[in-house]
Automatic annotation (TrEMBL):
Species in which this protein is naturally found: Citrus clementina
Keyword Protease set for record: yes
Endpoints of the signal sequence: 1-29
Keyword Phosphoprotein: no
Name of protein: Peptidase A1 domain-containing protein
SUPFAM superfamilies reported for this sequence: Acid proteases
Length: 495
């Protein structure tokens, strides 16, 4: 008990330090900005709890089976959802790949495999091809199905109510896509999910959408069948959903939202780890954020809690959720990919020193190529190869005293920290356009990849000029989107 409290305090210290480095522009506490302490023993222990505490997670899920009825009067609480990582989901859902999660190594390798697929999909959609990309995607549909896909999509999940009366359903959250959908009866093809499949016949608020309606026009990939608006979305990793568009009531936290355009998926593939569907949080007009529009001012905020901590994160909608004191960075619009949240990154730092690399490596081109995307669905941050190599070399140069280990999975820079209680490592920072500097907690860039004390530098080269800020680097930091004004905020809260 005392141990875990110490970790918690240590984390707070690291994150408070993060807060300081965001806010201060001067270099007052010079020594603090150069090094951090990674608590090795606690990091490994944290990852072990993942499988040691499966039964506890099952309990957690049972408790979650009702939509939260906690009675708080603040506006923030009205729109608040608990955010759960998939490693917890898998213990409650009965998917065939359940066994993968019983051991940390398997879970890690599975996660990295999914990550490579996710990145390949993003790169295909967002790099090269210019205006052809959209066409390409349509063509891909149906031909790109990977049979026997065993990992599924989605890293983080929330629980919302669908229909009237509300049926609780787990939803994958995705900051990189727009459509909100659930598997729907009658199902011509549904994958296994942990809740009963949603049946429109049991909902008083369900109404179909005709082909001629304005909302049907807003769909990228609309079709028409017997007068009904049809949608289809392919996620490029083999998962897809097809069905009809409908207006339905959603219950988000304690807030009831009527007439949300959702896909009622009659034909779906992909595992989505037992979730009923997907909650698109992208920047387009069909995403939940886009549809809530005036009600929430295009604003939402989330906290991805570190795996292995046993606690949950949160997702909150509305301007009330936007914190005071965050470091705000302008969002960059890519007309070619309006769903994605691009940010202006200007550089990287190690040990308090900015690495000499060109800012152009991170720039979104006139053609809509390259640039830096914030993505909840990608685990490991990807950087253009020249940027990655300079960054890694600077990190290696400042950790010369640590014993190296051979590369693991997508990581080429690993350390054998077996036998260490804690190590001193250089700080790692993102320099954003406009000045804010985000200094990461040590546990966001040096992660355990097995139970034996191997830790890796958790960045990887991008297969293209596209950079992606992944969820491992976002963990524990409150991240807020102010869509209306075009900013993303980091901090100041820890979670
Ligand atoms: C590291 O943690 C393990 C179990 O969590 C404990 O048995 C061991 O004594 C710890 N090692 C040190 C050096 O504190
Ligand atoms: C949900 O709450 C109701 C009333 O509080 C209770 O009767 C029911 O058993 C709960 N359902 C689940 C799945 O926990
Ligand atoms: C919530 O609490 C307030 C006062 O604190 C009370 O008036 C209200 O009836 C409560 N609502 C529910 C649903 O319990
Ligand atoms: C989960 O799997 C077990 C064993 O395969 C089976 O007995 C059980 O009925 C399944 N539960 C659900 C809810 O599908
Ligand atoms: C890591 O170092 C320990 C000694 O500190 C050693 O026993 C172990 O074999 C090393 N592991 C690897 C994979 O090299």
């Amino acid at each position: 008990m005392a141990f875990s409290q110490t970790t918690f305090l240590l984390k707070q210290v690291l994150l408070l330090h993060l807060l300081c480095s965001i806010i201060t522009t001067s270099t007052s506490a010079a020594s603090n900005t150069h090094f951090q302490i990674l608590n090795v023993n606690e990091s490994i222990k944290g990852s072990r709890t993942d499988h040691a505490k499966m039964s506890q997670y099952n309990e957690l899920f049972e408790r979650h089976n009702n939509i939260s009825s906690s009675n708080t009067s603040s506006d923030e609480a009205r729109w608040k959802l608990e955010l759960v990582h998939r490693d917890k989901m898998s213990s409650s859902s009965n998917t065939t790949n359940n066994m993968h999660y019983h051991r940390h190594q398997h879970s890690f390798h599975a996660r990295m495999q999914r990550d490579v697929k996710r990145v390949a999909t993003l790169v295909r959609r967002l790099s090269g091809g210019g205006a052809d990309a959209a066409k390409h995607e349509v063509q891909d549909f149906g031909t790109d199905v990977v049979s026997g896909m065993d990992q599924g999509s989605g890293e983080y999940f929330v629980r919302i109510g669908v229909g009237s009366p509300p049926r609780s359903q787990y939803m994958v959250i995705d900051s990189g896509s727009d459509i909100v959908w659930v598997q729907c009866q009658p199902c011509s093809q549904c994958y296994k999910q942990s809740d009963p499949v949603f049946d429109p016949a049991d909902s008083a608020s369900f109404s179909g959408v005709s082909c001629s309606s304005a909302v049907c026009d807003r769909l990228e990939n609309a079709g028409c069948h017997a007068g009904r608006c049809r949608y289809e979305v392919s996620y490029g990793d083999g998962s897809y959903t097809k069905g009809t568009l409908a207006l339905e009531t959603l219950t988000i936290g304690r807030t009831v939202v009527k007439n949300v355009a959702i896909g009622c998926g009659h034909k779906n593939q992909g595992m989505f780890v037992g979730a009923a569907g997907l909650l698109g949080l992208g920047g387009g007009s069909m995403s939940l954020v886009g549809q809530l529009g005036g009600q929430t001012g295009g604003a939402f905020s989330y906290c991805l809690v570190s795996r292995g901590t046993g606690s949950s994160g949160s997702l909150v909608f509305g301007r009330e959720a936007l914190p005071v004191g965050a470091a705000w960075v302008p969002l960059v619009r890519n007309p070619r990919a309006p769903s994605f949240y691009y940010v202006g990154l200007s550089g990287l730092g190690v040990g308090g020193m900015r690495i000499p690399i060109s800012e152009d490596l991170f720039r979104l081109t006139q053609m809509g190529d390259d640039g830096v995307v914030m993505d909840t669905g990608t685990a490991v941050t990807r950087l253009p190869t020249p940027a990655y190599e300079a960054f890694r070399d600077a990190f290696v140069a400042q950790t010369g005293n640590l014993p190296r280990a051979s590369g693991v999975s997508i990581f080429d820079t690993c350390y054998n920290l077996s036998g260490f209680v804690s190590v001193r490592v250089p700080t790692v920072s993102f320099y954003f356009s406009g000045g804010p500097v985000l200094t990461l907690p040590a546990s966001n860039f040096l992660i355990p990849v097995d139970d034996a004390g191997t830790f890796c530098f958790a960045f990887a080269p991008s297969p293209s000029g596209l950079s992606i800020i992944g969820n491992i680097q976002q963990e524990g930091i409150q991240i807020s989107f102010d869509g209306a004004n075009g900013f993303v905020g980091f901090g100041p809260n820890v979670c």
